[in-house]
């Protein structure tokens, strides 16, 4: 392998193996995350064969974290953040303290130092941004009360870790039991704490005062150029630039900086388009995050210290979950919310790795402690989808048993529609909304399949029935009663996803009338091969509409009156 291409080799090897094992995991009906993590183990230094660059993989995965948090910020207003502060702040602080004490107790039982135990406990207390948000987005609950509490909780955890990373170096001597604590006085520690809080506060004020005006203005300016390429570049530059600037100038984490960049941009009407433009890169780099986690894992720890591994996993999955559940219930939130928050936080990730690496560098944490943290991360990430599946099953059983739920319990269950001989609209964007408006005016029975939280919220505010799923999923096909529908409008602009939706709908109902949209001859062929009856090409539809309006205008002109158009243009 040429030494001049470690970046390319790392990206290609990581993505290729992630694709292979992710596809295999999907075929086996398990989470693709399992495949991504296994791909990381295979390209890591602890298994034979090709070894990717760990440092490069970790840096690349940070881009995924930045773009993910930027996307969350685009759908998360300051009002949403403040609305959950009453539970997110005390809840996160208490949960961090509880998990840290559990980790410290395990470390002391294993004969480690107080400093090592403190670092170990703190590393077990903070959840992974990527895993938590992936879980919430897959269930379409980011914009619900449960989702807002989970994200607010995560932000408080990130802030706590920022303070920890700043204070740990000056405290290392004291924690190691060295006389004088490396000459660091208590006053200096308080000074460092004050400086850190001041920097974080300064960043938040800067974003709310300056960023709130400059970022939307800049994106509007670029949008008016009409260049989609420049717009996409502007979105990425804002997300990555603000995240890097927040870290370099204010000492704030990349994730927190990107979140605030998205949050101030959320007030612009271009926020939805910005989210769509950043989506492909966000997904690709999020995969690299899971691969980078797998690369750090040394499987031999499972044989060397199985009891310590089991105890570590128990603290992460059960210790943190019990604490979170108790806290949420203490604040009088329903059990469904408590279960979702508990499962969301029952894993560890990126901040845990950073904290473990810093602990090893400061001689506070042993290499065994770092390996235990990585083992706990791998196992908890693998177990997280199982926890959510158990919660979904629990909620489903409660529904089947007919148990009453209060109106404050948010349960995003996909129910089967009662409509028959109806119309199904896939997509609630501009085209979908135009179709919805027509069907509403004509008082025709219909429903919409849409999985974007912002569009779902808008449609439901109009009193429209919405199936919150991917249109190609068997759940959506069943819930929308596609077999009993009369026609289907596929109004999304993603030809690949549209083709999948058309294929599944045609299989469910051979007599269904399917009308889809396309932007090229290739997309027309793709949709027709999958079963669409009629495909409307965007350019032809626009031209037809323009000609219709133009000639209608001409017909309305009195004889001999000028039209203001030359024969060539008309």
Write structural notes for this entry.
- The protein has 570 residues and is mainly α.
- It has helices spanning 6-27, 32-43, 54-74, 78-83, 85-109, 114-125, 129-138, 145-175, 186-223, 228-250, 254-265, 271-296, 301-304, 306-330, 335-345, 350-361, 367-400, 430-441, 453-461, 474-479, 495-508, 521-529, 538-556; strands spanning 423-426, 446-449, 466-467, 487-490, 513-518, 534-537.
- A 6-stranded parallel beta sheet has the order 3-2-1-4-5-6, sandwiched between helices.
- α6 runs parallel beside α17 (367-400).
- It is globular.
Mean pLDDT: 81
Q: Figure out the total of helices.
A: 23
Which geometry do the CA atoms define?
Answer: globular
Low-pLDDT segments: 399-412, 559-570
Radius of gyration: 27 Å
Query: Looking across the biggest beta sheet, what order are the strands in?
Result: 3-2-1-4-5-6
Total count of strands: 6
List the quaternary state of the chains: single chain
| Residues in helices, as a percent range | 55-70%
Secondary-structure content class: mainly alpha
Order of helices and strands: HHHHHHHHHHHHHHHHHEHEHEHEHEHEH
Please give the largest β-sheet. Answer: 6 strands, parallel
Give the terminus-to-terminus CA distance. Answer: 63 Å
Q: How much strand?
A: under 5%
